[in-house]
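Chain A, query sequence.
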Amino acid sequence: MTDTPILEISNLTRTYRKGGLFGGTSFNAVDNVTFTLPSTPQVFSIVGESGSGKTTVARMILRLVEPSEGSIRLLGRPLSGKAHDRIDDHEFRRLVQPIFQNPFEAFSAYLPVEAYLRRTALNLRIASNDAQAVEASDAALRSVGLSYERIAGKYIRQFSGGELQRISVARALIPKPKLIVADEPVSMVDASLRMSIVNLFRQIVEEQGVSFIYITHDLSTAYYLSDQVSIMNTGRVVESGVPTEILDNPQQAYTRELMAAIPTVGERWSELAEIDSQFGYADARHSKVSPPTINNDA
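Chain A, predicted structure.
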């Protein structure tokens, strides 16, 4: 197994301008962000409120936005610029897959959802014919608790948000990526199903060796899911480290504000464990760490 980090982000900055062509001001949506996702498969969460810069970081990792400064390296190779060893588009799509916030916007209302899975398998040359595409789609769907037979011929209106997000995850898994970038993937899912999706991510990490960048405003799911956490505010990383260290002993006022926004974490964890058991998921994270003690009166 190589020790080359999955992802290396160095001094990443994205600057935007406000105002007209000959005036206005500039601001950094992302300002000098640096972190490394090591070779061992894991979940790295980036947590912050709206406007913190976390989604802009995700978009730069997905090559949807070019950095103004800094660099992003995937498996030791640059994602942008004119370097001779830059990862090309086809290889990038096989190595990195996105999962977006709203599963209902990930599929057209006019095509059955399985068509997108088959297209992914064919376009990324995972399959050379339709039969192989169906086989690859079915294997990915079964890894998220569904099957090709179960979804075939159905449209988005025939699925719940949780089911559609599972189908999105299955589509992302078809090329067997090294990294999945999940941008607020449970914020549009019914609350009763959120932890089934979060536990599914953990299961994918442990069973398929896929790393995740998990973008969220929710410290509770980040704590539960993550191996590492970075807290962002106004474009900068203000605190970073192991979840238990950050949430049990936050050093920054902004982190404490985010923690205060969580209802009662201890009670939520018992509810999440109950939801886990309903969906048949191994309670891996609960067995490893305890929820933080948060005093909402502080």
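Confidence is low (pLDDT under 50) at residues 265-298. The radius of gyration is 20 Å.
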